[in-house]
């Protein structure tokens, strides 16, 4: 088990780790009765796919644009009416995602450490989401991949943590629920905590997390 002196910072992925991307279902269900969950799941899957495709092609766009493109595709694919006004409301919903129930208490328990977010979201997206949840006091830094114009899991995105927090790789506990992020952070050299809420099988990438947890509140055993 890691001792406090070995870690100086806990860095969190935002979407799916601290904030529940599917909390937007309430809004999607309002607009598309009976299909809210399907819209949310398709939207999220396409959003991630577009991140990888844009990175591979060297055609990065900020994540708000990536997210809107995924939403447009989702509505076309599911043959749902989604005019500009409705699309704006759905995009705004992505700025108001709810944190997971244990997130605030888990972050408060880590107050002796530097705490940051490293996310694919733009700085403005992250600032709005964190502020809406009233969690500004829980983070020392909100770090966006927009600074390097490529998405995780590219190594340059994880380097942003070292540059921002002035720590070494071995001093970072990286917390994520997304396995592509587990692999990327582990490959980079971070201590990785995988929040595996659904008991899913790890991807066969030859890269495993240091610790597998079911919720953020289990982090307290490592401090």
Outline:
This protein has 223 residues and is an alpha/beta fold. Helix content is 41%, strand content 12%.
Key traits:
2 domains, alpha/beta, DNA polymerase, domain 1, 223 residues, six-stranded parallel β-sheet, Rossmann fold, 12% strand
Description:
By secondary structure, this protein is an alpha/beta fold. The chain folds into two domains: 4-20 and 98-222, HAD superfamily/HAD-like (Rossmann fold, 3-Layer(aba) Sandwich); 21-96, Putative phosphatase, domain 2 (DNA polymerase, domain 1), CATH 1.10.150. Helix content is 41%, strand content 12%. The chain has eight helices and six strands; from the N terminus they run βαααααβαβαβαββ. The protein has helices spanning 25-31, 36-57, 63-77, 84-93, 103-108, 123-132, 155-165, 179-188, and strands spanning 9-12, 114-119, 141-144, 172-176, 191-195, 211-213. Strands 3-2-1-4-5-6 form a six-stranded parallel sheet. Helix 1 crosses helix 2 and helix 2 (36-57) packs across helix 3 (63-77). The longest helix has 22 residues, at 36-57. It is globular. The chain starts with 8 loop residues before the first strand and ends in a 10-residue tail after the last strand. 38% of the residues are buried. The mean pLDDT is 95.
SSE inventory with pairings:
Layout: E1 9-12, H1 25-31, H2 36-57, H3 63-77, H4 84-93, H5 103-108, E2 114-119, H6 123-132, E3 141-144, H7 155-165, E4 172-176, H8 179-188, E5 191-195, E6 211-213
Parallel strand pairs: 1-2, 1-4, 2-3, 4-5, 5-6
Helix pairs in contact: 1-2, 2-3
CATH class of the largest domain: Alpha Beta
Number of domains: 2
Give the overall shape.
globular
The main sheet comes to: 6 strands, parallel
The CATH H-level superfamily of the largest domain is HAD superfamily/HAD-like
- Summarize the helix and strand pattern as letters: EHHHHHEHEHEHEE
Helix- and strand-based class?
A: alpha/beta
**Distance between the terminal alpha carbons, to the nearest Å?**
9 Å
Residue runs with pLDDT of under 50 for 5 or more positions: none
Helix content: 40-55%
Beta strand count:
6
CATH architecture of the largest domain: 3-Layer(aba) Sandwich
The radius of gyration is 17 Å
Strand content: 5-15%
Q: Residue-averaged pLDDT, rounded?
A: 95
Number of helices: 8
CATH topology of the largest domain: the name is Rossmann fold
What strand order characterises the main sheet?
Answer: 3-2-1-4-5-6
